Amino acid sequence: MATIQLTKIIAPSVWGWLGDRSGQRVRLVRFGAITGSLFFAGVFLEPGFYGLLLVMLAFTFFWNAILPLYEVITLRTLGKRKDKYGKVRLWGSVGFIGAVALVGGILEWVPIQKLPWLLLPVFVGIAVSAFLVPSDRGERKPAAPKGSLKAIVTHPAVVSFFLMNFLLQVSHGAYYTFFSIHLAQHGYGKLSIGLLWSLGVLAEIGLFLVMHRLSQNFSVRQIAIGALTLTMIRWMLIAELTDVVAVLVFAQLLHAASYGALHAISVQYIQGFFGQHHHGQGQALYSGLTFGAGGAAGAWLSGFLVDGISTAAAFWGGAVAMMVAIVITWRGLRPPPKDDNA
Questions:
Q1: Left if phi > 0, otherwise alpha if psi is -120 to 50, otherwise beta: which for 45?
Q2: Rounded to whole angstroms, what are the CA distances from 326 to 57, 160, 178?
Q3: What is the DSSP string of 18-42?
């Protein structure tokens, strides 16, 4: 399972560079979806531990290329209407809830060994749907575009942006790794735990529906600081008041801030700073450095806190990470330049 995080750090940068150089992002998405599905089919060969490790490395290398490229395609298609991004992105959350409900229901009737057979049609469906997206015009990147990638990545505001998102994912390490265990330790049943997970995703969907209004009325910095503060409060509530159902429900509703708001402004922030010529690599760095490296570091560090102290301590660690992120964002995050190529 760790290979998913490993390739998430490396693969998006490779595919983002290819997308920026060739301009053929839709074709790369199609290739990644088809090839990733074919490699995933290797699980049916029952290859043993090392064989399965190779299958996962190959599958996730192509699979982790798709989402960053699709983010670029979506924002390029929206153009001046990029504030509508949330209304497109919410369908990913709807799909997540649908998959959890459907697959979870089916697994009540069939053994878990059948899970790969349930996943394969989903991967094939994604590959097929990729062919419904119109192809790119294939505009190649000029040999020396204005503004080098190094100059953009080392810009103080961009450094602050990546540090903010890295710490955000570090803080989510306890949530994604130990939230269910933490709830079970406090006497919550499987149904209650599942409903609380779903509530967080529903809050995320609600946020995506109104995100365009927030973007029009507040600056990126204001939204970021507000969302980080609410995320810090969320981890403290989960750590200390887990037994109070109403408080836990409120904490899960704050997923709208800790994921929804920050992800929505981040993809637009990258478009503004990295521009037309480096947009794919910008999205790739965002995916790799935050969801990849940040997520892996958060899971690893929270494991030490759970082992040494308790699951509550891991959530307090997330709150501390958010305190640091708030300071960095307050001091360093600045709005991106106007994107003439949007």
A1: alpha
A2: 35, 10, 24
A3: HHHHH--HHHHHHHHHHHHHHHHGG
Amino acid at 274: F
Distance, C-alpha 29 to centroid of its chain: 17
Contacts of the segment 274-278: beta carbons below 8 A, 24+ positions apart: 274/149, 274/152, 275/145, 275/147, 275/152, 275/339, 275/341, 276/339, 276/341, 277/20, 277/141, 277/142, 277/145, 277/146, 277/147, 278/20, 278/145, 278/147, 278/149, 278/152
Among 212, 207, 205, 208, which Cα is nearest to 82's? 212
CATH number of the domain at 125, please: 1.20.1250.20
Tell me how many degrees the CA angle 177-314-243 measures, rounded to the nearest 5: 90
What is the reported pTM? 0.71
Neighbours of 340 (CB within 10 A): 7
Could you tell me where the DSSP H helices lie in 241-310? 245-253, 255, 262-286, 295-308
Cα dihedral 249, 250, 253, 259 sign: negative
Cβ atoms of 66 and 153 within 8 Å: the answer is no
Residue 183, domain member (yes or no) = yes
Burial class (CB in 10 A: 0-12, 13-18, 19+), 135: exposed
Residue 322, Cβ neighbours under 10 Å: how many? 26
With respect to residue 342, please indicate whether it lies within any of the assigned structural domains. no
Q: Is residue 242, in this structure, part of any structural domain at all?
A: yes
Residues 142, 19, 53, 286: is their CA dihedral positive or negative?
positive
- Evaluate the CA torsion angle 142, 146, 148, 152 in order and state its sign: negative
Burial class of residue 74 (count of CB atoms within 10 Å of its CB; 0-12, 13-18, 19+): middle
In a domain, 307, yes or no: yes
Count of domains observed in the chain: 1
Domain ranges, residue 219:
2-135+148-332
The per-residue pLDDT for range 75-91, each reduced to its tens digit, is 777 777 766 777 777 78
Q: How far apart are CA 148 and CA 271, in angstroms?
A: 15
211-256: per-residue pLDDT in tens? Answer: 777 877 888 888 889 989 999 999 999 998 988 889 989 998 998 8
Output the CA torsion sign for 242, 247, 250, 254.
Answer: negative
End-to-end CA distance of the chain: 37
